[in-house]
Design a protein that fits this description.
The protein has about 625 residues and is of the alpha+beta class.
Length: about 625
């Protein structure tokens, strides 16, 4: 597990630079329990903390080439490192250690920063070219590993976490009010923003170039996911090719580890990962981890247990470990509110932390099913977009009648049938992109007016308007999810939680070969309006039990609305009405009180927005 940090600041003495660098590293203990490796030469300061997967224990994790003209630090893994290493050795390169990340400095020697296009893995890195006096920061194409930076004139700082970056020179604690507004809508701060006005996230599939003397600092995209060109294969051949690529993705993620683990839910994605891994492990032991809930409507542990029994038929040496989420664990909510470095309100971070803690006792890495929903049309909202497109093909009179009927339904909870129907119609707009945003937005205009009064706040929809998807309809929305929700929410949740407990999470669905092939598949092969992940189910029809193949998607939901009115009521009320949120004036206290009272009285379900406000208040009180 590892974290990186560093800076270029020619105004600091070498002694002061080393002291600052060690402070930055020490502020990131959750990403690496090992020691610090430090490089300071008067021009740059690089630090690496922890004992990362792929690095020999106790080895120096500052990477250099033969002439020491290229210096790098890496958080993450390159899955094709063994093949790249053999190729580089054949070209005369010499390696000083046995860790796979060392391929980066040698690839850079041969190809410059363009070598980043060839890297298949999860990574964030900093690389300094001493001959050209240029710093590069890079992040993997889907944003599995985080990297934050802060530029100030001729100086720049970077770190794996905001906690580390806050210890860097010239850091400003000034909050970004626009980022707070975006957070209330999405439940996360969209990249490249952070909660701090002058700090930034490096975007997925981008690298940054910094030249102090030339006053140059720019970010450049190095790779796209092309949804515009579709395969010429038949459906059957495409299904076979998808399976081949996925099995290879699982294989290379297992090769580097002797004690892997697997995250298992009651759904299709994690089952396919686990079943493929179980076959490849060939009766080697492996730990499988599941979490459940006491609330039946949210609990998948029984379905996961049934899946595990099917897996044992493939590999009898699998071991199943199950943890149950207790609604009394409000202290974990408080911990999570400060642990992510900025407000982060995906409630499934709670079971994710418990899952990672369970895994961390037995495994150094774990396989997960992340990314399958975005790549293969798994979310119900994709089907809803198709329905919305059909809705606008009906005559205006029919559309109006349908809306009036929907308004007669009771105002139910978010997950109830009536709640879903009302949300569908409330969000409708002739622009499908705006419709999709409306469904995701947890702080729509009327609620923002309650919280901000007449203050001008930028419309969060601008985040969506910057993308130019290659597909259309539901596929375009899935592309937007790949570039927004996946890196900023789903992968952030997993990486931060897992790293805290010493677990690297590997996602076979996000392998370059799988991603590129999935993008080439026609949308109707993924989601035909009736079947989600259609071609994925076809590709593994022999492995998928019939019951699982037709099961409804449940997700990793948390009964926040229920717990706010019961087990968490006292804690939530105290924090919302008397905590940091009420003291700082970030939002209008009257608006918060009104939302809370309406929620308690069951006049409306404001659970998502109240949860976002709660996490914001906890963050402001502990940052």
């Amino acid at each position: 597990m590892s974290a990186i940090a560093g800076f270029i600041d020619r105004d600091l003495s070498p002694g002061d630079a080393r002291a600052v660098l060690e402070e930055m590293a020490d502020a990131q203990p959750a990403r690496g329990a090992g020691g610090n490796s430090v490089f300071c030469d008067g021009r740059i300061a690089f630090g690496h903390r922890g004992d990362a997967v792929g690095f020999p224990s106790g080895g120096d994790t500052i990477l250099v080439n033969e002439t020491r003209s290229v210096i790098a630090v890496v958080d993450g893994e390159f899955y094709d490192a063994p093949a790249r290493r053999r190729e580089l050795l054949s070209r005369g390169h010499r390696f000083s250690g046995g860790h796979g990340a060392e391929i980066l400095v040698h690839l850079f020697e041969d190809e410059g920063i363009d070598c980043i296009r060839k890297l298949n893995g999860m990574f964030a890195f900093a690389l300094y070219d001493a001959d050209a006096d240029v710093l590069y920061l890079g992040r993997d194409r889907l944003g599995k590993k985080p990297l934050f930076y802060r530029r100030e004139g001729r100086a720049i700082s970077f770190a794996s976490t905001l906690a580390g970056l806050r210890r860097s020179p010239y850091f400003s604690e000034e909050l970004d009010r626009e980022a707070i507004s975006d957070y209330l809508s999405f439940g996360y701060v969209p990249h490249p923003q952070t909660i701090y006005r002058k700090a930034r996230k490096l975007e997925p599939a981008h690298y940054l170039v910094f030249q102090a003397d030339a006053q140059r600092c720019e970010t450049l995209r190095y790779r796209e996911i092309d949804f515009g060109v579709k395969t010429t294969l038949s459906y059957a051949d495409a299904a076979a090719e998808l399976r081949r690529r996925f099995e290879n993705a699982v294989r290379i993620r297992l090769e580097a580890e002797t004690t892997p683990g697997i995250f298992l839910s009651g759904g299709v994605d994690s089952f396919l990962v686990a079943a493929t891994a179980a076959k490849l492990l060939k009766n080697a032991p492996c730990d499988v981890f599941t979490v459940g809930f006491p609330e039946r409507g949210y609990d998948e542990s029984a379905a996961a247990a049934a899946n595990f029994e099917r897996l044992r038929a493939i590999n009898p040496r699998l071991r199943h470990h199950v943890g149950i989420v207790d609604p009394e664990i409000f202290k974990l909510v408080e911990f999570c509110a400060s642990h992510y470095g900025e407000p982060f309100a995906d409630a499934s971070m709670i079971p994710m932390h418990l899952l990672a803690r369970l895994a961390g006792k037995r495994a150094r890495c774990a396989l997960s099913g992340d990314g399958a929903d975005e790549l293969f049309g798994g979310y119900d909202r994709y089907r809803a977009i198709t329905l919305a497109e059909h809705f606008y093909s009906y005559p205006p009179v029919a559309r109006q009648a349908a809306k009036l009927l929907a308004e007669l339904l009771p105002s139910g909870a978010e997950r109830s049938f009536s709640g879903r129907v009302r949300r569908f119609f409330d969000g409708l707009n002739p622009s499908m992109r705006r419709t999709y945003f409306n469904w995701l937005d947890r702080a729509p205009q009327e609620k923002r007016r309650l919280l901000y009064g007449h203050r001008h706040i930028a419309d969060p929809f601008r985040i969506f308007s910057t993308f130019t998807p290659g597909g259309d309809g539901a596929e375009a929305m899935a592309e937007i999810d790949l570039q927004t929700y996946l890196p900023d929410d789903a992968l952030t949740k997993v990486d931060v939680a897992a790293m805290h407990y010493g677990v690297e999470v590997r996602s076979p669905f996000l392998d370059d070969g799988v991603v590129d092939f999935a993008a080439s598949l026609p949308w109707r092969w993924k989601n035909d309006g009736f079947t989600r992940k259609k071609i994925l189910r076809s590709a593994f029809a022999d492995l998928l039990p019939k019951k699982l193949a037709v099961a409804r998607k449940r997700g990793f939901g948390v009964p926040v609305s229920l717990w706010m009115r019961s087990a968490w009521k006292i804690f939530v009320e105290e924090e919302l009405l008397h905590g940091a949120l009420s003291r700082t004036g970030v939002v209008d206290n009257f608006g918060v009180r009104r939302l809370w009272s309406e929620h308690l009285a069951r006049e409306a379900d404001h659970s998502y927005l109240l949860w976002h406000l709660l996490i914001l208040s906890l963050f402001l009180g502990r940052k």
